[in-house]
Amino acid sequence: MEVFHAAKTSEMTIKETLSAFKKAGLDTMTGASAEILVDSVRAKICPNKVSTAEWVNIIEEAHKMGIPTTSTIIYGTVETWEDRINHLLILRDIQRETHGFTELVPMTFLNQNNILGTELKGSSCLDDLKMHAISRIIFGTEIPNIQPPG
User: Fold this and answer.
1) Residue 13 CB partners (closer than 8 Å, separation 6+)
2) Helix H or strand E segment including 133
3) Alpha carbon distance 89, 85 (integer Å)
């Protein structure tokens, strides 16, 4: 999101913006603002953030320029297991093309003190274990570093 905003306000392309950041000393980036890479879900939980295609473009450009990133997923909102798996498959496909992800950081939605409210339950311990196990299956050795549920 920050790269997108910097490019937009500077009237630069994503590639130009990343190049300027790299020249200024940027060595790595977070894979933040991914939430769930399914636009129908993004419209509900983060409508003011970049689209899935824009996020993928920024991450792929960073990787092509030699700027590795983390990859993230926030789950436990309105998404389904199918949405979660589709998100992981997008990350896997990017990794197969660029080899730029250093790790996966799965994060459960925290339903307290936020605009989405407490009607969203977040995830259970069993959901956390399933997310970790499914991530291991999907990524295999392609993204070997997966943070455990915390």
Assistant:
1) 7
2) helix 125-139
3) 6
Cβ neighbours for 81, distance < 8 A, ≥ 6 positions apart: none
Count structural domains, the chain: 1
39: its two tokens:
């636009």
Spatial contact of 142 and 136, defined as CB atoms under 8 Å apart: no
pLDDT per residue over 4-62, tens digit each?
999 999 999 999 999 999 999 999 999 888 999 999 999 998 999 999 999 999 999 99
The values of phi and psi at residue 70, to 5°, are -80, 170
Residue 118 lies in a domain: yes
The boundaries of the domain holding residue 69 are 2-9+30-139
128 contact partners, CB below 8 Å, separation of at least 6: 106, 108, 149
Output the domain CATH number for residue 47: 3.30.750.200
Tokens of 144: 């070997």
Q: Is 112 within a domain?
A: yes
Asked whether residue 35 is assigned to any structural domain, the reply reads: yes
Q: Can you give the pTM of this predicted structure?
A: 0.91
